[in-house]
Amino acid sequence: MTYELFQTFEDLVEVDAVVYLVDAYDKDRFAESKKELDALLSDESLATVPFLVLGNKIDIPYAASEDELRYHLGLTNFTTGKGKVNLTDTTVRPLEVFMCSIVRKMGYGDGFKWVSQYIK
Fold first, then answer.
1. What span, in angstroms and rounded, lies between the C-alpha atoms of 19 and 61?
2. At what angle do helices 30-41 and 66-73 cross, to 10 degrees?
3. Is residue 9 part of a domain?
4. How many domains does the chain have?
5. Order of strands across the sheet with 95-99?
6. Which H or E run contains 55?
7. Rounded to the nearest 10 degrees, how much is the dihedral formed by the CA atoms of 19, 89, 39, 3?
8. Among residues 21, 98, 26, which one has the least CA distance to residue 60?
9. Residue 52 is part of a domain; what is its CATH number?
10. Distances from the Cα of 103 to the Cαs of 42, 100, 112, in angstroms?
11. Per-residue pLDDT of the chain (120 residues; tens, 9 = 90+)
12. How many CB atoms lie within 10 A of CB 12?
């Protein structure tokens, strides 16, 4: 289920990054999640904003793998890499997928470290 916290991103003064959390176990809702993510990625006001996609619940057996999640979200050839990638002189938006388990407190720290390097 998606919760609208505000009407449009124009209502916000500034967005430094977007963290998009996906339930990697609920494969039946990947299409819905892709639709929501695509809407965010196509929003002109977010064109240069870094996106961190977190695939949660990897502690549950049969949760999607990182490759499977990338495929279903349409991100297979669109992520920028998990290391320090210099995107300063390009129009490429930082975008990466990290798998995590919020309950087990693992994986999301790497994602937040990654996205923090692109926040100005």
1. 24
2. 60
3. no
4. 1
5. 18-23, 51-56, 95-99
6. strand 51-56
7. 20
8. 26
9. 3.40.50.300
10. 31, 9, 16
11. 444 555 555 555 688 999 999 999 999 999 999 999 999 999 998 988 999 999 999 999 999 999 999 999 999 988 888 887 777 777 778 999 999 999 999 999 999 999 999 887
12. 10
Is residue 6 in a domain? Answer: no
Q: Please check whether residue 4 lies inside any domain of the structure.
A: no
Whole-angstrom distance, CA of residue 15 vs CA of residue 100:
23
**Looking at the domain assignment, is residue 11 inside a domain?**
no
Structure tokens at 11: 């209502």
Residue type, position 49, single letter: V
CA distance 59 to 108: 13
The residue range of the domain holding 85 is: 16-91+107-116
Q: Tokens in use for 107?
A: 């994986």
